[in-house]
């Protein structure tokens, strides 16, 4: 129903964590994307407050860092739900009823792509090919992969992932 | 006696339940009092038979498939662990026509070996190519690749040896090998299968490239959507380093070479080589204007080889067997073998590696067995989201570079996606424009604006709004994109659109309520 509420300000410990990540990569050539990956891995997203910290430590402008964060679809600016469901929208999956699956997921969860269920259980994201095109349509829940996904199969996966049925 | 059983850990097999099958097998064997050794391999590429279980019986590996976790207790009871008959028994995979008719060179080890067992790799011909390269030296190695006729398998089909020659010619200094593992094309998974099923072959290929052009450092640009490949690849790099195949002194040659993996971040455009280099340097993946070529000024301004995973993993085959032996496969200007990926609405999808020349129809019907839905196959898209749609009348086209380009299509990375007759080609054309808009790096207007307007105009045709006018508008936009885009995203996105408009005109005619 809602996309995740505006993220809470990050704590001092989290700021320290960001700086520690930067310190770890700073000596590598072209480290910014590596740093963003580690920040997102550690915190689940790239908080707005991390941008000036990273920029300062790497001698880049905030605009440059912000520009990189927003260029890549993978980096999120808000926390995700407990689990992330990624549905493939690309052609091979479309040829195997991927569109219907997509509609079903949106209705079942009551959210669109890029949104999180109100109970914070599931974030729904679009992906463009998971390399599972010989068993389309494909989906991923966190890092667990699923092929030939039917709406019924998806319901079961969601139930297991802790997403209660839509009221 | 311990029975060795193989079950794949390839992401495609896992997506079809291989992990549950493996667990069920361990439990069923324990219950039956049978001693088994479970080994994990890559996929043989017959995804329609995954989860595939292979039981070692004397000299053969007897396959059963597809085996779900629920099937396992019954199979064990019926003597699967002794290779006994059962409706799911396939027999040795190597003798199955789907597999036996293939010519697996690049994929020779995938599915046969334990991907992370270095001894297994070496026992199956691993590092022979590297040893030969070290023996004959830089120049002769480059020449061998030139002679083989190997062309890049990532999409642009540029002769690999010629690219290496350019790098070799540059003034002395730091050089890089980059492996393009961004594999963003829908319908493709050969890079993933190689990285998960035979990661040392990618390492070997990159190291040979390093020896050939005098580079000491390699990067793999791996898409973040492939966590399994990342796991296997990084473990393999660690193992190769530990065994002296990477590092300061590769195989006692005094030559240094090492590899680092960098993860992409969900941008299709970063598969384009200059965008990939920008991304490897930690920036937005905006296209670089050529010249200079990456071979002249690439990563961090240094001469850089950019090659696809399949290209690099094929190089050891070329070196080990010799250029002439590799050239013998294929036809005209398409030499060697091509790992085709058959996907979408087909009954039997998977990886088909053969010498160039197989026709679309043979692939779809002899291998694919027709559509999965049982309905007629109406269209195929070849070469990913920027590739043309072919109608049935073009299915006799051979899958090779020149023949496809003659009909305005392209092979790309070798993905073939089938659609049955329920497909709405107007919608597929609209999607192609929408995808281009979604992935555009924004550097040039024909792509950035053209794709947005193209998607709108196609949407309007679907709603019956001025269909003729919008049809012409799309044609004009495509023309501009083809002529004036800076790179292949905007420059090729018109291919699926125009081919759909040309060959499936009927889908664009009707008004509302089509
Ligand atoms: C929009 C676009 C996306 C591309 N994506 C990939 C990709 O994901 N993987 C790849 O190997 N090549 C991709 N390419 C081709 C690369 O630019 C480049 O030609 C290739 O990596 C060179 O390696 P090869 O000669 O071994 O094929 C793409 C090209 C374009 C224009
Ligand atoms: S064609 Fe598109 S992706 Fe390529 S440079 Fe232009 S805007 Fe960027
Ligand atoms: S198109 Fe969906 S997994 Fe490749």
Concise summary:
With 167 residues, chain A is α+β, with helices and mostly antiparallel strands.
Strand content of chain B: 15-25%
Total strand segments of chain B: 16
CATH architecture type of the largest domain in chain B: 3-Layer(aba) Sandwich
Give the overall average pLDDT of chain B: 97
Spatial ordering of strands, largest sheet of chain A? 2-3-1-4-5
**End-to-end C-alpha gap of chain A:** 12 Å
- Strand neighbour order, sheet with most strands of chain B: 2-1-3-4-5
Question: Regarding CATH, which class of the largest domain in chain B?
Answer: Alpha Beta
Q: Could you name the key traits of this structure?
A:
heterodimer, A: 167 residues, alpha+beta, Glutaredoxin, 2 domains, five-stranded mixed beta sheet, 43% helix, elongated, B: Rossmann fold, Ubiquitin-like (UB roll), binds flavin mononucleotide, binds iron/sulfur cluster, binds FE2/S2 (inorganic) cluster
Question: Can you give a write-up of this model?
Answer:
The complex is a heterodimer of chains A (167) and B (514). Chain A is of the alpha+beta class and 167 residues long. Chain A folds into two domains: 12-71, no CATH class; 83-161, Glutaredoxin, CATH 3.40.30.10. Chain A is 43% helix and 12% strand. Chain A has helices spanning 12-25, 32-43, 50-58, 62-71, 91-94, 98-109, 151-160; strands spanning 83-88, 115-116, 122-127, 139-141, 144-146. Chain A has a five-stranded mixed beta sheet with strand order 2-3-1-4-5, covered by helices on one side. Chain A starts with 11 loop residues before the first helix and ends in a 7-residue tail after the last helix. Chain B starts with a strand and ends in a 5-residue tail after the last helix. In chain B, a hairpin with a 6-residue loop joins strand 14 and strand 15 (389-391). Chain B has 514 residues and is α/β, with parallel strands linked by helices. Chain B has four domains: 3-99, Glutaredoxin (3-Layer(aba) Sandwich), CATH 3.40.30.10; 118-327, 3-Layer(aba) Sandwich (Rossmann fold), CATH 3.40.50; 330-420, Roll (Ubiquitin-like (UB roll)); 425-508, de novo design (two linked rop proteins), CATH 1.20.1440. Chain B is built from 21 helices and 16 strands. Chain B is globular, with a radius of gyration of 24 Å. The chains are: A alpha+beta (167), B alpha/beta (514). Chains A and B meet through helix 2, helix 4, helix 5 and strand 5 of A and helix 1, strand 12, strand 16 and helix 16 of B. Iron/sulfur cluster binds at residues 269, 287, 440-444, 447-448, 485-487, 489-490 of chain B.
